[in-house]
Amino acid sequence: MSDQQVDESKRGFLVAATSIVGGVAAGAAAVPFVGSMWPSERAKAAGAPVEADISKLAPGAMQIVEWRGQPVWIVHRTKDMLESIEKNNEVVADPNSEVPKQPQYAKNEFRSIKPDFAVLVGVCSHLGCSPQLKPADSKADMGMAWNGGFYCACHGSKFDFAGRVYKGVPAPVNLTVPPYKFVGETTIIIGDDSKEA
Ligand code: FES
After folding, report:
1. How far is it, in rounded angstroms, from Cα 101 to Cα 86?
2. What's the average model confidence in pLDDT over 107-130?
3. Atom of ligand 1 lying closest to residue 127 CA
4. According to the model, what pLDDT value does residue 27 have?
5. Which residue, of 6, 74, 123, 148, has the fewest CB within 10 Å?
6. What residue owns the CA closest to ligand 1's atom 1?
7. How far is CA 141 from the centre of its chain?
8. Residue 195 C-alpha to ligand 1 middle, in angstroms?
9. Residue ranges lining ligand 1, Cβ < 6 Å
10. What is d(CA 82, CA 85) in angstroms, rounded to the nearest whole number?
């Protein structure tokens, strides 16, 4: 199967976002999942910033928000997930996020404003499939030492819990961190990082 065929068959997420939810749940059964916070149709159409309430997002869980037709993942990273990122510096291609795939305020060890919360555009930097969350206990089916992260089944690209791409996979760069900001402790605005609340 050519890359183009795979690309076309796997990119359905843009028109069937609910399939992402199912895919994540099936591929990462051990990870609790919180229902998505979809913005209004009007906001989606305008590509406006969207708001996510993360008050019910348990440690280890992932929430998906649609922004500009793309899935944006919010992962409440546990201590183990953060430690797995620290262990991965040798195996990822761009450990210090030198390629500008994140706002300046996320160019840090965990590629985020707060270490506990990852905010990533869930689109593979190879040909645009949507990777799946794979917890650390997926080692057996990953066929390698695996500290947990995201796996793109289209062509086998792997990313850690900071969205950093592994060396030697088709994806060339880290996952994108969108512009975002916290408004209070439990609300994230995606698509707007202005200083005004
Ligand atoms: S789209 Fe090719 S590995 Fe993700």
Report:
1. 19
2. 98
3. 1
4. 39
5. 6
6. 127
7. 20
8. 35
9. 124, 126-129, 152, 154-157, 170-171
10. 5
- Kindly list the distances between the CA atom of residue 189 and the CA atoms of 22, 47, 68, 128, 167, in Å, as whole numbers in the listed order: 24, 13, 13, 24, 32
User: pLDDT digit string (tens) for 64-100?
Assistant: 999 999 999 999 999 999 999 999 999 999 999 999 9
Which tens digit of pLDDT belongs to each residue from 29-39?
455 545 444 55
Q: Which two tokens stand for residue 21?
A: 């939810």
Alpha-carbon dihedral angle through residues 17, 163, 77, 31, given to the nearest 10 degrees: 50
End-to-end CA gap in the chain: 48
Give 112: exposed, middle or buried? Use CB within 10 Å, 0-12, 13-18, 19+: buried
pLDDT number for residue 179: 98
Q: Which atom belonging to ligand 1 lies closest to the Cα atom of 10?
A: 1
Enter the tokens of residue 1: 């199967």
More confident residue, 20 or 166: 166
Q: Out of 120, 129, 132, 173, give the residue to mutate to test ligand 1, the one with the largest number of ligand atoms within 8 Å of its CB.
A: 129
Is the pLDDT assigned to residue 2 strictly greater than 90?
Answer: no
